[in-house]
HK-domain-containing protein (Gloeophyllum trabeum), 533 residues
Amino acid sequence: MCKAITPGIDYSLYLVTGRELLPEGITYIESLKQAIEGGVTVVQVREKKADTGEFLQIARESKELCDQHNIPLIVNDRIDIALAIRATGVHLGQTDMPVAVARSLLPPDTIIGVSCNTPEQVEKAVQDGADYVGLGAVYGTQTKDVSGKIIGPRKVGLRLEKLDGTNVKSVVIGGIKTSNVLRTLHVSVSTSGRTVDGVAVVSDIVASKTPRESARTLASLVKAFKLASSAPALARPFSRQLSDSLLHDAAALLDVVRKHSPLIHQITNTVVTNQSANATLALGASPIMATSPYEMEDLQKATGALLINFGTITDKEGMLQAGKFANLNKKPVVFDPVGVGATAYRRSTASELLNTWQASIIKGNAAEIGALADSVEVQAKGVDSGGSFKDPAAVIRQLARKERCVVVLSGVVDYITNGEDVVALHNGHPLLGQITGSGCMLGTAVATFAAAERLRTLESEGKGADEEGKLVSGDMLVAAVGGVLALTVASELAAAREDVKGSGTFLPALIDELGKLTPEVIASRAKAEVFSP
Ligand SMILES: Nc1ncnc2c1ncn2[C@@H]1O[C@H](COP(=O)(O)OP(=O)(O)OP(=O)(O)O)[C@@H](O)[C@H]1O
Ligand SMILES: Cc1ncsc1CCO
């Protein structure tokens, strides 16, 4: 019997079937039954090769099973089959029946979904009266030829914007699996804060020998993400008055670094590898400067945080793998896109890296941040910056919202934002500008403090209920403030020493001062301003 389930479809875990993907030893119906038991919330029957009779038979069996579990069933493309089995809905591609014609043929209340690749297609689907849109292909997939149609997770938000002010629902589709689902959900947000309603999955469930477990894991991750993202965006309400406690908390992370000595994995450039490793040790953490892609899976289980600095890109595959496994292990990832504005190769590599993993913090000088923010205001001079922004707070806020992470803009004044509040730090010394790799060491210090902030959060709050749905624990804004202050305060102390005669003697003195630093000295010397929106 047809159940009245149309008003509130739960799109959280949307299974698209594909019999050609079934592994040996499991029937279509058994796989579907297990997937539903595992937590699939809506099923679309997709049969690209079957003739009408076979499609009808498969759709009928699927409908019977879905009805038993009160799960809505959607038919791909075929209005006649949807009508014949009284399906909950139909899903239409861009070259299938137009929405209006489908609507005129189907009973009222039938759900109609449309596959959309571009923002214009989303706009049109909304105008045509679609109930939901399938946005993709997010990643490459073996189940469909999507060449030229991969939008990447960071562009989903542009499509979601077209749903603002409507009640049209959305799912993302194309290569979504357990290993990337959290990251995909995290970054699939419009500027107005709209997130997707669910994820559509094919092979991760259908090709699985244990579809119940695959569906259970995916369903649990989507549920956990929804729970975590329904919490307030900021860990604490933020205001000018709070800047003292912010500075105190940030500085106190130095004690956490020294207590736990976290392993800081750094893929950095050949110019600074040694000095960055020594800066890590001086702060009290433990550096590992590994680059081979073959060890990233193991390494990310043991690390406290990951720094990816592509000053001399020779190991892109290692960078791709490291970030992916850091995300999977919920470790903070700090990205330093050195010289990204200088060459087309650096720009495309930054985009590839950011499409593969989620950065917790992006740090760069004005030229680097400008290049990522698509601003032409500040030009790159190789790895150096040729100026500063008129409104740095606006540029970094916009980038933080676009990339869904904390952004650090280095310069004479360092600016840090989580997309809302902006902290300006006025510490530092001109000698930092006269040694190579001071920005790289800044990235190292930020990664070290990010590891400490994650440990502090896990230690004080334990694995909270929303832990599973987060990419990383802790307030990365506090971590970034702590890391920047550690390096810049140490630079002031080093520059004031009598034995420092210039940039040559400054570098070893800086390492010494990093080693002698205390949270009290950091907090007492911090010169900060906070701008709230
Ligand atoms: N003139 C200055 N006065 C105070 N602090 C400075 C000055 N120049 C640089 N710094 C500090 O040095 C750190 C590195 O910032 P900078 O913007 O120079 O990095 P960068 O251009 O990426 O450096 P590099 O490419 O050498 O690694 C920042 O914390 C910044 O505050
Ligand atoms: C000089 C230089 N060239 C590539 S990376 C690097 C270190 C400072 O960014």
